[in-house]
Amino acid sequence: MEERLQKIIAQSGYTSRRKAEELITKGKVSVNGKVVRELGTKVKPSDEILVEGNIISNEPKEYYLLNKPRETISSASDDLGRKTIVDIIETNARIFPVGRLDYDTTGLILLTNDGDLTNILTHPNSRVPKTYLAKLDKVITMEHFFSIKNGLEIEGRKVGVSHIKIKKKDEKKGTCFVELTITEGRNHIIKKLFAKLGYDVTKLTRTHYAFLDLSSLLSGEYRTLTKREIVELYKYEEVGRHDRKNRKNGSSRSRNRLS
């Protein structure tokens, strides 16, 4: 089955589709040894594609949902030789994680060799909801609970929490579990959120990503995504497009009011 060249480059994870189009028009892409400058050129799975001298994979796409165990790296490789989440998946495809979870954070993470979908899901405008369960070193006060719920500023930007709930608390042990949902993906953002109020997160698990959950998967177990799930995840492209349009219209209205 033939596919458009820029789509194959984007799906490989090398760059975005728009950037792929730029590289094609600049003569940075070749197919079977011949430079291609025409957008919309279609290629077959057997074709050899080079982008800036790098071979691009045209292999079938694979999609996995993993319950990430502790002390594994959310990357395709690690310079220190530590175990990565890619090592867990039994496949010959060159897959990579969609976003990341910290070394000691467990829970739901997606892996794929579909760079196009990865770019969609990790783009800030897509606003993919991610739900976490955090174990704190002490019981959270209601004042701090509502501070988080109303939006706490971290590093100059407010963290929007669409859902927060105290799932369990133990006054004797001085611990509690708090569930919260956010749509951004800044590094260590959950830990920073609680740390600002004086709490240590002793355990952190991502339980949901978009509409997906861990279901019965144990730590270290994984499954492939269904076709319906993949289609639903691709719908976040439209969410991101709609968000960008609203932001653009909002900026235009602001400029009109100032003029």
Number of helices: 8
What is the approximate shape? elongated
Describe the main β-sheet briefly.
Answer: 9 strands, mixed
- By DSSP, the count of extended strands is 17
Write down the Rg.
Answer: 21 Å
CATH superfamily name of the largest domain?
Alpha-L RNA-binding motif
- The CATH C-level name of the largest domain is Alpha Beta
Mean pLDDT: 90
Q: Per CATH, what is the topology of the largest domain?
A: Alpha-Beta Plaits
* CATH architecture descriptor name of the largest domain: 2-Layer Sandwich
Element order, helices and strands?
A: EHHEEEEEEHEEHEHEEEEHEEEHH
Measured between the Cα atoms of the first and last residue, the distance is 53 Å
Specify the helix fraction band. Answer: 25-40%
Structural class: alpha+beta
Plain-language structure description:
Strands 7, 8, 9, 10, 13, 14, 15, 16 and 17 form a nine-stranded mixed β-sheet that branches. A four-stranded antiparallel β-sheet has the order 3-2-5-6. The protein has a two-stranded antiparallel sheet with strand order 1-4. Helix 1 (5-11) packs across helix 2 (17-25) and helix 1 packs across helix 4 (115-122). With 259 residues, the chain is α+β, with helices and mostly antiparallel strands. It has helices at residues 5-11, 17-25, 85-88, 115-122, 142-150, 189-195, 227-234, 236-258; strands at 3-4, 29-31, 34-35, 42-43, 49-51, 54-56, 63-68, 96-97, 106-112, 130-136, 152-154, 157-159, 161-170, 175-182, 201-209, 212-213, 222-224. The protein folds into three domains: 3-56, Structural Genomics Hypothetical 15.5 Kd Protein In mrcA-pckA Intergenic Region, Chain A; 63-124 and 213-226, Pseudouridine synthase I, catalytic domain, N-terminal subdomain (Alpha-Beta Plaits), CATH 3.30.70.580; 129-209, Alpha-Beta Plaits, CATH 3.30.70.
